[in-house]
């Protein structure tokens, strides 16, 4: 089962193994040690990763994230994302500290932030690139590895250099939203976003209405942990009621607003 998880994801955190497998921590450590001694895996801080054919601990490749690459995702539902980004930016207050998580929808916030002189923490190289020309916007970035297809910086570990950062709100996208909560398709991304959530007082979710129809994935947080959802006007009534029942404020946006 450990190998199967690793073959699906490339990397698995020890905490994820502990949640998914009904085994004691001591048993998991012994099994990981056996697999490493057999040359099947490489144990790293916080978890384990697969060893590819002909690779070793020093040359094993950084795992790829599952999900749609950024350059493909950015064109999907583009008009809805533009409207969502503008509505989300309107929630920001001048000179506050915010977290903007990587994503094609959160990227659409950036053109509307220039006059606010924000302090922004982001793991997205696309977002950082969009904010760099804004002289009044201060930018911080966590430590970690660069995942090229999504152009984001992620670390499966807790020592990413941002332990003292605190934000009034976090703006985040998602692969799917449902009754189980907010989800991402990749476990590494979900873990990184859970740690970012701990640094924000409020969570604002930016998702186009198609995300309520998407397949489920790894749960980042439950719906009652979300404060605001910004989406487009095509959201179905049943999904709006789901959010209302969870106590989530719903904002719908259109380009004509």
Beta strand count: 15
Sheet with most strands: strand arrangement? 6-5-4-9-12-14-15
Percent helix range: 25-40%
Helix-and-strand structural type: alpha/beta
Outline type: globular
Q: How much is the average pLDDT?
A: 84
| Main β-sheet description | 7 strands, parallel
Radius of gyration (Å) = 19 Å
Number of helices: 8
Distance from N terminus to C terminus (CA atoms, Å) equals 50 Å
> What is the beta-strand fraction?
15-25%
Order of helices and strands: HEHHEEHHEEHEEEEEEHEEEHE
Low-confidence stretches: 53-62
Helix-strand layout with pairing:
Elements: H1 2-9, E1 11-13, H2 14-20, H3 25-37, E2 41-44, E3 47-50, H4 70-73, H5 78-89, E4 97-100, E5 119-121, H6 125-131, E6 138-140, E7 145-147, E8 152-154, E9 169-172, E10 176-178, E11 181-184, H7 187-197, E12 203-206, E13 218-221, E14 228-232, H8 237-245, E15 249-253
Parallel strand pairs: 4-5, 4-9, 5-6, 9-12, 12-14, 14-15
Antiparallel strand pairs: 1-3, 2-3, 7-8, 10-11, 11-13
What do these coordinates show?
The protein has 257 residues and is an alpha/beta fold. It is 28% helix and 22% strand. The chain has eight helices and 15 strands. The protein has helices at residues 2-9, 14-20, 25-37, 70-73, 78-89, 125-131, 187-197, 237-245, and strands at 11-13, 41-44, 47-50, 97-100, 119-121, 138-140, 145-147, 152-154, 169-172, 176-178, 181-184, 203-206, 218-221, 228-232, 249-253. A seven-stranded parallel beta sheet has the order 6-5-4-9-12-14-15, sandwiched between helices. The longest helix is centred in the first third of the chain and has 13 residues, at 25-37. 39% of the residues are buried. Mean pLDDT is 84; it is low at 53-62.
């Amino acid at each position: 089962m450990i190998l199967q998880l690793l073959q699906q994801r490339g990397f698995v955190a020890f905490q994820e193994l502990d949640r998914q497998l009904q085994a004691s921590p001591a048993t998991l450590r012994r099994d990981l040690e056996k697999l490493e001694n057999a040359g099947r895996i490489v144990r790293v801080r916080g978890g384990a990763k697969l060893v590819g054919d002909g690779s070793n601990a020093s040359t094993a490749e950084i795992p790829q994230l599952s999900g749609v690459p950024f350059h493909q995702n950015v064109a999907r539902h583009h008009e809805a994302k533009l409207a969502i980004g503008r509505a989300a930016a309107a929630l920001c207050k001048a000179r506050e500290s915010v977290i903007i998580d990587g994503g094609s929808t959160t990227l659409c916030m950036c053109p509307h932030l220039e006059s606010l002189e924000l302090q922004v923490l982001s793991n997205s190289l696309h977002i950082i690139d969009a904010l760099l020309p804004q002289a009044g916007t201060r930018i911080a970035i966590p430590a970690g590895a660069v995942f090229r297809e999504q152009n984001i910086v992620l670390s499966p570990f807790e020592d990413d250099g941002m332990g003292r950062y605190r934000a009034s709100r976090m703006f985040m996208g998602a692969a799917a939203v449902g009754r189980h909560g907010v989800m991402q398709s990749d476990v590494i991304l979900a873990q990184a976003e859970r740690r970012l959530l701990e640094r924000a007082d409020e969570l604002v979710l930016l998702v186009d209405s198609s995300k309520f129809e998407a397949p489920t994935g790894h749960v980042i947080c439950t719906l009652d942990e979300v404060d605001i959802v910004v989406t487009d006007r095509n959201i179905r009534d049943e999904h709006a009621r789901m959010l209302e029942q969870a106590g989530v404020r719903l904002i719908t946006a259109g380009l004509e607003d």
